[in-house]
Amino acid sequence: MKISELLKKDTMILDLKATTKETVIDELITKLDQAGRLKDKRAYKEAILAREAQSTTGLGEGIAIPHAKTAAVRTPAIGFGRSTAGIDYEALDGQPSQLFFMIAASEGANNEHLATLSRLTTFLMDDSFRQTILNATSEDEILAAIDQKDAEKEAEEAAEAEAEAAKQNESQSSAVKASDSPQILGVTGCPTGIAHTYMAADALKNKAAELGYTIKVETNGSGGVKNKLTAAEIEAADAIIVAADTKIEMTRFAGKKVIQAPVADGVRKPKDLIDRAMSADAPIYKSTGGSSNDESSDSEKKGLNIYKHIMNGVSNMLPFVIGGGILIALSFLFGGIEAEGTFASMLNEIGGGTAFGLLVPVLAAFIAMSIADRPGFAPGLVAGMIAMNGEAGFLGGLIAGFLAGYIALLVRQLINKLPQVLSGIGNILFTPVLNLFVTGMIMLLIVTPLASVNLGLQSWLNGLGTTNMIILGVILGGMMAVDMGGPINKAAFTFGIAMIDAGNLAPHAAVMAGGMAPPIGIALATTFFRSKFSKKDRQSGITNYLLGLSFITEGAIPFAAADPLRVIPAAVAGSALAGGLTAFFGILLPAPHGGLFVFPLVNQGDVWPYALLYLLAVVLGAILTAILLGIFKKKVIED
């Protein structure tokens, strides 16, 4: 598929009217929407902003590639915008951006679409190609330049495939010389797997060729792993560069010199990465038996990285939480608290009877899988089901996951001690049977006392008086702003979900209010205390209005990272106030996510006064954060 099949005249703007990052995004999204490429313009914008919140897509060299893969896209497409004057897009090199390619990938985009979208990003590494696009006088001229580049790429790929086939034929007839293997290996990957993955790969290849090194780069994109490194290549390589922001299989690199860096460094700093990799003091990677990118630590060696295992369970549980929770809330909206009526009962059955019914088993299964890899999944799922059926709740799910994971590790060690002749049947037959039997028997023995503890906790929370509930709201709200997406934030969020599952809807209302207040408060501060923020911060602050209203606390992270001693206390104070006021007003929230968009569902859809009081709590918390930032922060002097 050619790029010009995704980039059409009706999705191109040769003279952008926008002057800021936010207005560039709006203008390109509007163009894609008017061309009929989007199903939900608002949802697509949220996905774009969420990607920008992770790291800017302004890559430097005058290029920006905002992108998102989401169900809000009707047809995979590319939106193009050009500004000859340049726009501050918070690019990595600090320079204005002139060429903007907005990639819209549908959630079900096939590999051919994804490969085509990704190929565009590699073209933009070519200086002459960028200059041609910048100087083009019409849409047809731009499309012709892209088609020519496509043809050149196809010829290049055909030549590479022919050379690879010849190399394979040669290796079949004779041993491959060590000198034939790449000196450097690379691995690239980004969360979306569309743009940065391939730009980093091309940057590394181009710079390696310039420096006189041979290199092979494996890409971990949306279409899967391409150019996968072989065991022989890894063995022969002098060094390995992993430029990735997503999970990469690392155990294969044990004993080799490995440099790990964000994918953005692969795009912007390929020479630095290559120099570090080829230096004599490059670090040697020590495998821990896992597959995480993170370098090994003592806790991981002992299998005790508790937070990592819990977060693996929570992150895989979130689709059930968000989708199921909102469907439950909608069932209340359409059918009252009893979800009466055919449609309401169907919503409740999907969300509550099925999706929410899987929360504890899914949590336990993925905790166990994080500990023991795939052998832990089945016993974790079964132990989680036992915990759920025994009414042991989230506490039971956590214990089930860790129990299943560590039993699977123990069983693996026992199987490894079997004679070699029995090792194959041991892994196929003995491992699953022993994992399920031992984990299941222990869970059946402890599920009753766990259920008693769980029911006791629920009774205590349900019996809290107004004062105590306000204190709990203050604590949960404040926790959401302490590390804004880190362990403390996730602990509060997980507790709120557990309380929804237990039928107590008050705690999570405080959690959501506490998570919304920091970005909104920062946005207010950048608007009303402009002298305390740089131009770049003021522009970023505008984005935080939408992020905060959407319950995306992470929008506050760049501000907190730049000035933690002032921003974090102000954010915690505002979040604590919002959480406390939410409890004081008696807000009950049945939906685990959604921000402002689920406010009409609080207190059984009682918009007046509860939805408005909920909004008031969030606004007052945000105002407190803004005022404290206005007081604490120093004036910024700019040239």
Describe the overall structure.
By secondary structure, the chain is of the alpha/beta class. Helices cover about 60% and strands about 10% of the residues. The chain has 24 helices and 11 strands. A hairpin with a 2-residue loop joins β2 and β3 (about 65). It is globular. The chain starts with 11 loop residues before the first strand and ends in a 7-residue tail after the last helix. The model is unreliable at about 170-180 and about 295-305 (pLDDT under 50).
What's a quick, concise take on this entry?
With 639 residues, the chain is of the alpha/beta class. The chain has helices at 21-34, 41-54, 111-123, 127-135, 139-173, 196-211, 231-236, 263-268, 270-278, 298-301, 306-335, 342-355, 359-372, 377-389, 393-416, 420-462, 466-482, 487-501, 506-528, 535-549, 557-562, 564-584, 602-605, 607-632, and strands spanning 12-13, 58-60, 63-64, 67-70, 77-87, 97-106, 184-189, 215-221, 224-226, 239-244, 258-261. The longest helix is centred in the C-terminal third of the chain and has 43 residues, at 420-462.
Features:
11 strands, 639 residues, alpha/beta
Mean pLDDT level: 83
The radius of gyration over CA amounts to 27 Å
Shape: globular
Q: Determine the structural class based on helices, strands and strand pairing.
A: alpha/beta
Measured between the Cα atoms of the first and last residue, the distance is 48 Å
Major β-sheet annotation: 6 strands, mixed
Percent of residues in β-strands: 5-15%
